[in-house]
Design a protein that fits this description.
It is a single chain. The protein has 13 helices and 13 strands. It has about 290 residues and is an alpha/beta fold. It folds into two domains: about 170 residues, 3-Layer(aba) Sandwich (Rossmann fold), CATH 3.40.50.1000; about 110 residues, Calcium-transporting ATPase, cytoplasmic domain N. The strands form two sheets. A seven-stranded mixed beta sheet has the order 1-13-12-11-2-9-10, sandwiched between helices. It has a six-stranded antiparallel beta sheet with strand order 3-8-7-6-5-4, with helices on both faces. β11, α11 and β12 form a beta-alpha-beta unit. It is elongated and about 70 Å long. Bound molecules: adenosine-5'-diphosphate (ADP) and magnesium ion (MG).
Amino acid sequence: ATPTAIMVGVGRGASEGILIKNAEVLENVGKINAVVFDKTGTLTYANPQVVDVLIESTLSKEQVLALAAALEEGSKHPLAKAIIASSPQTSPKSVQAFQNYSGLGVSGEIDGMVYFVGSPAFIAQFTSLQPSTVAQTFLEEGNSIVALSTKEQIIGYIALADTIRESAKIAVEKLQNDGIEVYMLTGDNERCAQKVARELGIEHFFAGVLPNGKADAITKLKNEGKFVCMVGDGINDAPALAVADVAIAMSNGSDIAVESADLILIANDPLYVVNAIALSRATMSKIK
Ligand code: ADP
Ligand code: MG
């Protein structure tokens, strides 16, 4: 093995926007036979837009968005940003006792009332409230869902839709044509995950997965004998990135995702996973 060839490979990667943390990583990338993509921010742009609001109380849509936006002020989640952007109100109400639950949602107090903003599963866990029959239809339309609730009552639901990255489909296709299995992992709901997976031609996906569940999914694939690459961008992907054989992060991802990664994609483009594998193989073939 010539260290020079590896150094050249790492350098070529850098010039192409593939930052490789060390020589061993470059070697490992060529051995990947299963790639697990996070959905939000990795296969999609994470620029969700509010597309619909369902009211389950006497409040107006504007009031639901304004309350949710006030509570989301302390969150950096893409859904939080979208809700804040959609809210008509300019000076949000002040929030006490704010708490963030990664992969679930947030809670806080406004005027002495405790509120929860997050996935229906999060609401169920913290309040035992379940969606009404009307809400169930709304929840199954394939959007990301954020519910607003107190301990006693669900106030409303906000549906958000994200855009799939242009090159994601090509990336998936190229990996699959190369005999590499492609998986998708998401904290988002089953319907929304299914819609994205179908559009991208991804057969295997896991929805409603919490951050530690993402790591468990990677461990399970490793135990099946696969050499697993995790590609992610969020705080919620850090546990999965930590256990993967190769951890790849989008450069615009959260600090913890970038720190947990072995390889960083400057262009935030899943297609560069394919390029990284090609670079590794080309480099290693020069060594033997
Ligand atoms: P992904 O795995 O696709 O990146 P997340 O794990 O970040 O998704 O989020 C999963 C779900 O949890 C979201 O669809 C949403 O319902 C809920 N959620 C997470 N964070 C927030 C937040 N800050 N505000 C509202 N909902 C949230
Ligand atoms: Mg993400």
